[in-house]
Amino acid sequence: MRPFFLFSGLLITVIANSQIVNIESSRIQSDTTGWAGSGGASFSLAQNTQQITAASVEAHLQYKTQKDLWLILGDYGFLKGGAEKFLANSFAHVRYNRKLNKWLRWEAFTQVQSNHITQIRSRYLTGTGPRFKLISAKKFRLYAASLMMYEHETERIKPAIKHNNLRSSSYISFTFLPAENIELISTTFFQPLYNNLSDRRWFNQSILRVKANTHFSLYIKWNYLYDRKPAGTAPKTTYQLISGFSLEF
């Protein structure tokens, strides 16, 4: 067996990249208004029968007032072996959140993304709907939302197939804070077509984050996606496990 070398700013195991963005894990919880943000990056190098390189970068910017919240997210990642890029994914997401009262928010969002392994050349989303605060305790928070979104998708196959759909995008999310520097966030999405409930997606993301200080955190993230009618010949089930760090400012 040839020597094997692995270097990583993050220990990363990539099976597939998710298509659904978990906005709950991206909200920076703070009582102060103004700008906040975070960013992260990973790199790994392996040498076996060929050299394999993996890298990803992500950024998050947030602006908050007493009643308004703006979120801007971006992500790009790839896995490359030799001269061939095995898979790549990217997305950009903008979301606006308006506080109506203590338990009700109204959200609107737009998103653009692509994903090689799930055979999505491009997907454009825009949607809106209510978000409910169900429980807000010191160590536990529970939210639910029911949004309607328009989806324009082009599959990464030849000849290209395009879709224009209206989907429900409902989710339930909880945050558990067992200690001052530890948090667990888990969000589950359900996204069926309005006119064909058999065409549906389930997605879960769970993140365990440990804060070393105000600005630096370590985390383990688990993504699981089931798409009953995926693009092209993409698998119905994909999952991803990541261990890494994030910086907040």
Write a concise synopsis of the structure shown.
The protein has 249 residues and is mainly beta. It has strands spanning 7-8, 11-14, 34-47, 51-64, 68-81, 84-99, 104-115, 120-136, 140-155, 162-179, 182-192, 200-211, 216-227, 237-248. It has a single domain (7-248), classed as monomeric porin ompg (Porin).
Describe this structure in words.
With 249 residues, this protein is an all-beta fold. It has a single domain (7-248), classed as Porin (Beta Barrel), CATH 2.40.160.40. The protein has no helices and 14 strands. A twelve-stranded antiparallel β-barrel has the order 3-4-5-6-7-8-9-10-11-12-13-14. A hairpin with a 3-residue loop joins strand 3 and strand 4 (51-64). It starts with 6 loop residues before the first strand and ends with a strand. The relative contact order is 0.17.
What is the second-level CATH architecture?
Beta Barrel
Low-confidence stretches: 1-18
Q: What is the overall shape?
A: globular
Rounded radius of gyration (Å): 19 Å
Strands of the widest sheet, in order across it, are 3-4-5-6-7-8-9-10-11-12-13-14
Order of helices and strands: EEEEEEEEEEEEEE
Q: What distance lies between the first and last C-alpha atoms, to the nearest angstrom?
A: 45 Å
Mean pLDDT: 84
Key terms for this structure?
globular, 249 residues, 0% helix, disordered N terminus, Porin, 70% strand, 14 strands, mainly beta, twelve-stranded antiparallel β-barrel
